[in-house]
Design goal:
Distance between the termini: 14 Å
Strand content: 5-15%
Strand order of the largest sheet: 3-4-2-5-1-6-7
Number of helices: 12
Radius of gyration: 17 Å
Length: 261
Protein backbone atom coordinates (compact mmCIF):
# COMPACT_ATOMS: atom_id res chain seq x y z
CA UNK A 1 0.00 0.00 0.00
CA UNK A 2 1.26 3.49 -0.87
CA UNK A 3 2.50 5.57 2.04
CA UNK A 4 1.03 8.84 3.23
CA UNK A 5 3.08 11.90 2.32
CA UNK A 6 2.90 14.97 4.56
CA UNK A 7 4.37 18.15 3.09
CA UNK A 8 4.66 21.52 4.83
CA UNK A 9 4.52 24.44 2.40
CA UNK A 10 6.51 27.08 4.24
CA UNK A 11 8.27 30.39 3.94
CA UNK A 12 8.43 32.84 6.83
CA UNK A 13 8.15 35.69 4.34
CA UNK A 14 4.62 36.62 3.28
CA UNK A 15 3.49 37.34 -0.24
CA UNK A 16 5.63 34.71 -1.97
CA UNK A 17 2.81 32.62 -3.42
CA UNK A 18 2.70 30.09 -0.61
CA UNK A 19 -1.07 29.79 -0.30
CA UNK A 20 -1.54 30.04 -4.06
CA UNK A 21 0.89 27.16 -4.43
CA UNK A 22 -0.86 25.12 -1.73
CA UNK A 23 -4.24 25.55 -3.40
CA UNK A 24 -3.12 24.89 -6.96
CA UNK A 25 -0.75 22.04 -6.15
CA UNK A 26 -3.51 20.41 -4.12
CA UNK A 27 -5.99 20.87 -6.95
CA UNK A 28 -3.59 19.58 -9.59
CA UNK A 29 -2.65 16.49 -7.58
CA UNK A 30 -6.30 15.71 -6.82
CA UNK A 31 -7.33 16.17 -10.44
CA UNK A 32 -4.56 13.76 -11.42
CA UNK A 33 -5.97 11.06 -9.15
CA UNK A 34 -4.05 11.57 -5.90
CA UNK A 35 -6.27 11.76 -2.78
CA UNK A 36 -5.21 15.02 -1.16
CA UNK A 37 -5.99 16.89 2.08
CA UNK A 38 -5.01 20.53 2.50
CA UNK A 39 -4.48 21.69 6.10
CA UNK A 40 -5.04 25.45 6.33
CA UNK A 41 -2.65 26.32 9.16
CA UNK A 42 -2.69 30.08 8.51
CA UNK A 43 -5.02 32.15 10.76
CA UNK A 44 -5.89 34.30 7.73
CA UNK A 45 -7.72 31.29 6.30
CA UNK A 46 -6.89 32.25 2.72
CA UNK A 47 -6.52 28.64 1.53
CA UNK A 48 -10.01 27.92 2.83
CA UNK A 49 -11.44 30.96 1.06
CA UNK A 50 -9.51 30.15 -2.10
CA UNK A 51 -11.18 26.74 -2.25
CA UNK A 52 -14.66 28.19 -1.83
CA UNK A 53 -15.22 27.47 1.87
CA UNK A 54 -17.11 30.42 3.36
CA UNK A 55 -16.39 31.40 6.97
CA UNK A 56 -19.89 30.40 8.12
CA UNK A 57 -19.30 26.89 6.75
CA UNK A 58 -16.16 26.31 8.84
CA UNK A 59 -17.78 24.55 11.79
CA UNK A 60 -14.85 22.27 12.60
CA UNK A 61 -11.49 23.87 11.98
CA UNK A 62 -7.78 23.22 12.35
CA UNK A 63 -7.97 24.92 15.76
CA UNK A 64 -10.41 22.20 16.89
CA UNK A 65 -8.04 19.60 15.44
CA UNK A 66 -5.10 20.93 17.45
CA UNK A 67 -6.84 21.90 20.69
CA UNK A 68 -9.76 19.49 20.95
CA UNK A 69 -10.72 15.85 20.69
CA UNK A 70 -11.79 16.13 17.05
CA UNK A 71 -10.18 13.77 14.56
CA UNK A 72 -8.79 14.58 11.12
CA UNK A 73 -11.91 13.08 9.56
CA UNK A 74 -14.14 15.23 11.80
CA UNK A 75 -12.50 18.42 10.57
CA UNK A 76 -11.99 17.64 6.87
CA UNK A 77 -14.46 19.25 4.46
CA UNK A 78 -15.05 18.29 0.86
CA UNK A 79 -14.28 20.84 -1.85
CA UNK A 80 -15.68 21.20 -5.34
CA UNK A 81 -12.69 19.20 -6.60
CA UNK A 82 -12.97 15.43 -6.33
CA UNK A 83 -10.17 13.87 -4.23
CA UNK A 84 -9.41 17.21 -2.51
CA UNK A 85 -10.46 17.87 1.08
CA UNK A 86 -9.57 20.75 3.35
CA UNK A 87 -9.27 21.33 7.08
CA UNK A 88 -10.26 25.00 7.18
CA UNK A 89 -8.98 27.81 9.38
CA UNK A 90 -10.55 30.84 11.02
CA UNK A 91 -9.10 33.74 12.96
CA UNK A 92 -9.43 31.61 16.14
CA UNK A 93 -6.14 30.07 15.09
CA UNK A 94 -4.33 33.36 15.71
CA UNK A 95 -4.44 32.69 19.46
CA UNK A 96 -3.02 29.16 19.16
CA UNK A 97 0.51 30.15 20.19
CA UNK A 98 -0.84 31.45 23.51
CA UNK A 99 -3.64 28.93 24.03
CA UNK A 100 -1.43 25.92 23.43
CA UNK A 101 1.74 27.22 25.09
CA UNK A 102 1.29 25.09 28.22
CA UNK A 103 0.10 21.98 26.39
CA UNK A 104 2.27 18.91 26.79
CA UNK A 105 4.25 18.08 23.62
CA UNK A 106 2.78 21.19 22.05
CA UNK A 107 4.91 20.86 18.90
CA UNK A 108 3.54 17.35 18.23
CA UNK A 109 -0.20 18.11 18.31
CA UNK A 110 -0.59 18.02 14.55
CA UNK A 111 1.69 15.03 14.15
CA UNK A 112 -0.55 12.90 16.37
CA UNK A 113 -3.71 13.90 14.50
CA UNK A 114 -2.15 13.21 11.11
CA UNK A 115 -1.45 9.64 12.11
CA UNK A 116 -5.14 9.18 11.18
CA UNK A 117 -4.59 10.33 7.58
CA UNK A 118 -5.77 7.78 4.99
CA UNK A 119 -2.97 5.58 3.69
CA UNK A 120 -1.75 6.68 0.30
CA UNK A 121 -3.04 10.23 0.69
CA UNK A 122 -1.08 13.46 0.32
CA UNK A 123 -1.38 15.98 3.13
CA UNK A 124 -0.34 19.52 2.24
CA UNK A 125 0.05 22.01 5.11
CA UNK A 126 -0.25 25.70 4.26
CA UNK A 127 1.91 27.27 6.97
CA UNK A 128 1.59 30.85 8.25
CA UNK A 129 4.29 33.36 7.25
CA UNK A 130 6.09 33.02 10.58
CA UNK A 131 8.30 30.47 12.31
CA UNK A 132 6.15 30.09 15.42
CA UNK A 133 4.35 27.19 17.10
CA UNK A 134 2.05 26.50 14.14
CA UNK A 135 4.90 26.19 11.64
CA UNK A 136 6.88 24.04 14.08
CA UNK A 137 3.87 21.73 14.40
CA UNK A 138 3.79 21.45 10.62
CA UNK A 139 7.48 20.66 10.33
CA UNK A 140 7.43 18.11 13.14
CA UNK A 141 4.47 16.40 11.46
CA UNK A 142 5.84 16.58 7.92
CA UNK A 143 7.96 14.24 5.85
CA UNK A 144 9.21 17.17 3.81
CA UNK A 145 9.10 20.92 3.25
CA UNK A 146 8.25 22.66 -0.02
CA UNK A 147 9.53 26.22 -0.20
CA UNK A 148 7.89 28.73 -2.58
CA UNK A 149 10.49 31.38 -3.37
CA UNK A 150 9.57 34.66 -4.99
CA UNK A 151 11.97 35.89 -7.64
CA UNK A 152 13.04 39.02 -5.77
CA UNK A 153 16.18 40.53 -4.26
CA UNK A 154 15.97 39.22 -0.68
CA UNK A 155 14.65 35.78 -1.59
CA UNK A 156 17.76 33.71 -0.90
CA UNK A 157 18.43 35.50 2.39
CA UNK A 158 14.98 34.48 3.66
CA UNK A 159 15.50 30.95 2.38
CA UNK A 160 18.67 30.54 4.44
CA UNK A 161 16.70 31.39 7.59
CA UNK A 162 14.09 28.76 6.76
CA UNK A 163 16.70 26.10 6.05
CA UNK A 164 18.25 26.87 9.44
CA UNK A 165 14.86 26.21 11.05
CA UNK A 166 14.58 22.91 9.16
CA UNK A 167 18.00 21.96 10.54
CA UNK A 168 16.88 22.78 14.11
CA UNK A 169 13.69 20.71 13.68
CA UNK A 170 15.76 17.75 12.47
CA UNK A 171 17.91 18.01 15.60
CA UNK A 172 15.07 18.49 18.06
CA UNK A 173 11.89 16.83 16.84
CA UNK A 174 11.89 15.28 13.39
CA UNK A 175 15.21 13.78 12.27
CA UNK A 176 13.70 12.53 9.01
CA UNK A 177 12.49 15.94 7.80
CA UNK A 178 13.79 16.75 4.33
CA UNK A 179 13.43 19.62 1.91
CA UNK A 180 11.32 18.41 -1.01
CA UNK A 181 12.38 21.34 -3.12
CA UNK A 182 12.19 25.03 -3.90
CA UNK A 183 9.60 26.45 -6.29
CA UNK A 184 10.33 29.80 -7.91
CA UNK A 185 7.17 31.90 -8.08
CA UNK A 186 5.97 35.24 -9.47
CA UNK A 187 8.74 35.31 -12.05
CA UNK A 188 8.73 37.94 -14.78
CA UNK A 189 11.25 37.14 -17.50
CA UNK A 190 10.96 40.69 -18.79
CA UNK A 191 12.66 41.65 -15.54
CA UNK A 192 16.41 41.09 -15.31
CA UNK A 193 16.11 40.67 -11.54
CA UNK A 194 13.85 37.61 -11.91
CA UNK A 195 16.37 36.01 -14.24
CA UNK A 196 19.24 36.78 -11.87
CA UNK A 197 17.41 35.38 -8.82
CA UNK A 198 16.64 32.19 -10.72
CA UNK A 199 20.25 31.87 -11.85
CA UNK A 200 21.51 32.45 -8.30
CA UNK A 201 19.03 29.96 -6.84
CA UNK A 202 19.97 27.24 -9.30
CA UNK A 203 23.68 27.90 -8.84
CA UNK A 204 23.33 27.74 -5.05
CA UNK A 205 20.76 24.96 -4.67
CA UNK A 206 21.15 22.92 -7.84
CA UNK A 207 18.52 20.25 -8.45
CA UNK A 208 16.68 21.24 -5.28
CA UNK A 209 15.05 23.96 -7.39
CA UNK A 210 12.18 22.56 -9.46
CA UNK A 211 12.58 22.95 -13.24
CA UNK A 212 9.22 24.68 -13.59
CA UNK A 213 8.97 28.35 -12.65
CA UNK A 214 5.57 29.89 -11.88
CA UNK A 215 5.20 33.08 -13.92
CA UNK A 216 3.64 36.30 -12.73
CA UNK A 217 0.21 35.86 -14.31
CA UNK A 218 -2.93 37.96 -13.97
CA UNK A 219 -5.19 34.87 -13.97
CA UNK A 220 -3.33 33.43 -10.98
CA UNK A 221 -3.85 36.74 -9.16
CA UNK A 222 -7.55 36.94 -10.07
CA UNK A 223 -8.53 33.37 -9.17
CA UNK A 224 -8.69 33.79 -5.34
CA UNK A 225 -11.29 36.55 -5.66
CA UNK A 226 -13.49 33.98 -7.39
CA UNK A 227 -12.77 31.41 -4.64
CA UNK A 228 -11.17 29.01 -7.12
CA UNK A 229 -7.77 27.59 -7.95
CA UNK A 230 -6.51 29.03 -11.23
CA UNK A 231 -6.79 25.49 -12.64
CA UNK A 232 -10.57 25.89 -12.47
CA UNK A 233 -10.79 29.64 -13.01
CA UNK A 234 -8.82 29.62 -16.27
CA UNK A 235 -7.50 26.17 -17.22
CA UNK A 236 -5.87 27.52 -20.37
CA UNK A 237 -3.84 30.25 -18.69
CA UNK A 238 -0.05 30.21 -18.43
CA UNK A 239 -0.40 30.02 -14.65
CA UNK A 240 -2.54 26.88 -14.88
CA UNK A 241 -0.12 25.23 -17.28
CA UNK A 242 2.79 26.03 -14.98
CA UNK A 243 1.09 24.61 -11.88
CA UNK A 244 0.09 21.43 -13.74
CA UNK A 245 3.66 20.95 -14.91
CA UNK A 246 5.00 21.64 -11.43
CA UNK A 247 2.54 19.14 -9.90
CA UNK A 248 3.86 16.47 -12.29
CA UNK A 249 7.44 17.23 -11.23
CA UNK A 250 6.43 17.23 -7.57
CA UNK A 251 4.66 13.87 -7.88
CA UNK A 252 7.66 12.38 -9.67
CA UNK A 253 10.09 13.68 -7.05
CA UNK A 254 8.02 12.19 -4.22
CA UNK A 255 7.36 9.01 -6.25
CA UNK A 256 3.65 9.39 -5.64
CA UNK A 257 1.42 6.49 -6.64
CA UNK A 258 -2.09 7.14 -7.89
CA UNK A 259 -4.97 5.49 -6.07
CA UNK A 260 -6.29 2.49 -7.95
CA UNK A 261 -9.77 3.00 -9.44
Amino acid sequence: MAQTNVVAIANQKGGVGKTTTAINLGAALAMDGHPTILIDLDPQGNASTGLGINVDQRRKTVYDLLAGPETLADCTMATRIANLGIVPATSDLSSADVDLAQTKDRTRLLQRKLEEAPKGSIVLIDCPPALGLLTLNAMVAADGVLVPLQAEFYALEGLSQLLTTVKHVRQSGNPNLRVNGVLLTMSDYRNNLSQQVEADARATLGDLVFPTVIPRNVRVSEAPSFAQPVLLYDPQSKGSAAYRQFASEFAARLKLVKEEA
